[in-house]
Task: structure prediction
Amino acid sequence: MINPIAKITLLFIFLSFGCRSKENYTTWSNYKGSPASIQYSSLTQIDTSNVKELKVAWEYHAGDADTVHQSQIQCNPIIVGGILYGTSPQMKLFALDAGTGKQKWIFNPFDSLAGDKRSSFIMNNCRGVYYWSDGKNDKRIYYTAGSYLYSINADNGKPEMALRQLLQAAFYLLVHKGWNVPGI
Result:
């Protein structure tokens, strides 16, 4: 007869190994690496024994750093289909060829605002961007700049105006007209 503590131990070991993920994390297409924010890659080409041998392959300079006001980048860029998406210190969204660093496009949120543009982005940081696709031709990058949520075409960097206008109208009604929506 097996001791009850041994049974519990064996059950725990069985469940621990049975719950291990078989998923390979070989891309970085989500904020922090995966929908679960695991911050891990199962790629093995680079490890602790050879990381010191890495050399810079390319650098990207958005050209909008503000050294007087100590601007910063807090964005966790993502890579989807060989394209790196990230944001600059002035909240510009960019797409780069991940292999070469060559810029494909850049979206400037200031270009789509009327009136006082600077006050929309004071003390603003973007922690990450989100990629969405319908699995066919519709590919988008979602990100925030100031109090605005942008839906940007991932192929050409153009804003998807219909969504933006809808969200701005909803935000206006919630904030300025006092609409009470449960859960928001």
